[in-house]
TrEMBL record:
<dbReference type="GO" id="GO:0007018">
    <property type="term" value="P:microtubule-based movement"/>
</dbReference>
<dbReference type="InterPro" id="IPR001752">
    <property type="entry name" value="Kinesin_motor_dom"/>
</dbReference>
<keyword id="KW-0067">ATP-binding</keyword>
<dbReference type="GO" id="GO:0005871">
    <property type="term" value="C:kinesin complex"/>
</dbReference>
<keyword id="KW-0547">Nucleotide-binding</keyword>
<dbReference type="GO" id="GO:0005634">
    <property type="term" value="C:nucleus"/>
</dbReference>
<dbReference type="GO" id="GO:0005874">
    <property type="term" value="C:microtubule"/>
</dbReference>
<dbReference type="GO" id="GO:0016887">
    <property type="term" value="F:ATP hydrolysis activity"/>
</dbReference>
<dbReference type="Pfam" id="PF00225">
    <property type="entry name" value="Kinesin"/>
</dbReference>
<dbReference type="GO" id="GO:0008017">
    <property type="term" value="F:microtubule binding"/>
</dbReference>
<comment type="similarity">
    <text>Belongs to the TRAFAC class myosin-kinesin ATPase superfamily. Kinesin family.</text>
</comment>
<dbReference type="InterPro" id="IPR027417">
    <property type="entry name" value="P-loop_NTPase"/>
</dbReference>
<keyword id="KW-0493">Microtubule</keyword>
<protein>
    <recommendedName>
        <fullName>Kinesin-like protein</fullName>
    </recommendedName>
</protein>
<dbReference type="InterPro" id="IPR036961">
    <property type="entry name" value="Kinesin_motor_dom_sf"/>
</dbReference>
<dbReference type="InterPro" id="IPR019821">
    <property type="entry name" value="Kinesin_motor_CS"/>
</dbReference>
<dbReference type="GO" id="GO:0003777">
    <property type="term" value="F:microtubule motor activity"/>
</dbReference>
Length: 359
């Protein structure tokens, strides 16, 4: 886990701190270890908790006071006064005295922590303050859901049927899940506790190949918001136009599966069909990108190119900006070495080979 994080996760954390976007996803057949690679165990953490720890190790001393920077519900952020922020801090602290939040924080704190940090580089000498926000959504049966929908609501029972969310494009043409809650965090433990809270709502089920098979694609997004800090007044400069937002999306894809081997039927079979279809669209998008790049390389900027079918799946539509070149994309391939999986594993490796050819 440590080696995978050093080669795949840590470089993306450094780019996040430097103000650039990143996308990291795990890919493979069902039961190949994707969720373990992303989450891990308390004594052997995966990519997600290690990314959180290294981020706060790097920017912890530059964090602004909580709730000074707040989401504006249109995928952007506003800067609030200290008085407004103080009222919000009091309200949230009251809410967190209820429910199982303290238990989640204790569970998050019981794990081994990542000690790595990344350099601030050119930002080292700048006067800036920042805030870290996390959100957690899933793509299930072609619809997007907010896994933090009931976060922070004291005494409220989780609804059996969560509300589906639309994908929208903001003023900067970035795709986002409309209405998804973003939670401000000040430590890796706090952010990981939010992740654990969302995991309780994620769609999982038992199949013939996996005791806890993911039935959805989950997307945990870390957003780092950086603004100018007035050292003389000891507060953030109240100008939202000076804010810079970068994000890192950590995606645990559901695994491809064949119904003959999993024994799926009914709703499980419908889930598998939707999972396989969305993964097929991802493959077609990667293939179209590769062919377009080859065409441009051979024929110049005026070469004929294919339309990339982003809109055929919610998952690929959400990450359209990344595939168009706005940030780095990394894929961690998880391989099941069982002899029974050889045919599906070969298909996974072929997809990885194709993806590695896309710049």
């Amino acid at each position: 886990q440590s080696e995978v994080f050093s080669s795949a996760g840590l470089p993306l954390v450094e780019e996040l701190v430097q103000g650039r976007n990143g996308l990291l996803f795990t890919y493979g057949v069902t039961g190949s270890g994707k969720s373990f690679t992303m989450q891990g165990h308390p004594d052997n953490p995966g990519l997600l908790p290690r990314c959180l720890d290294s981020l706060f190790n790097s920017v912890g001393s530059r964090l602004a006071k909580k709730f000074v920077i707040q989401p504006d519900r249109c995928n952007g952020f506003d800067i609030h006064s200290e008085a407004e922020a103080m009222m919000e801090r009091q309200r949230v602290e009251l809410e967190r005295r209820h429910g199982g939040w303290r238990q989640l924080e204790a569970e998050a704190a019981s794990r081994i922590r990542e000690s790595a940090r990344v350099p601030l580089g050119e930002l080292e000498g700048d006067a800036f303050g920042c805030a870290v926000f996390v959100s957690y959504v899933e793509i299930y049966n072609k619809l997007a859901y907010d896994l933090l929908e009931d976060f922070g609501v004291p005494g409220q029972v989780l609804r059996a049927e969560p509300t589906s969310r639309a994908l929208r494009e903001d003023a900067r043409r970035n795709m986002y899940v409309s209405g998804a809650l973003e939670v401000e965090c000040r430590s890796g433990d706090e952010a990981f506790a939010v992740f654990l809270k969302g995991c309780a709502r994620r769609q999982v089920a038992q199949t013939a190949l996996n005791a806890e098979s993911s039935r959805s694609h989950s997307v945990f997004t870390i957003r780092l918001v950086r603004g100018c800090y007035d050292c003389r007044l000891g507060e953030m400069v109240p100008d939202k136009s000076l804010l810079h937002v970068s994000q890192l999306c950590l995606v645990d894809l559901a695994g491809s599966e064949r119904s003959l081997r999993t024994g799926n039927a009914g709703s499980r079979l419908r889930e598998a069909s939707n999972i396989n279809n969305s993964l097929l669209v991802l493959k077609r998008c990667i293939e179209a990108l590769r062919e377009n790049q080859r065409a441009v390389s051979a024929g110049g900027a005026n070469a004929a190119t294919k339309i990339v079918p982003y809109r055929e799946s919610k998952m690929t539509q959400l990450f359209k900006n990344f595939f168009d070149g706005d940030g780095s994309v990394k894929m961690v391939l998880c391989v099941n070495r069982n002899a029974e999986e050889v045919e599906e594993t070969a298909n996974v490796l072929k997809f990885a080979e194709m993806a590695s050819e896309v710049q």
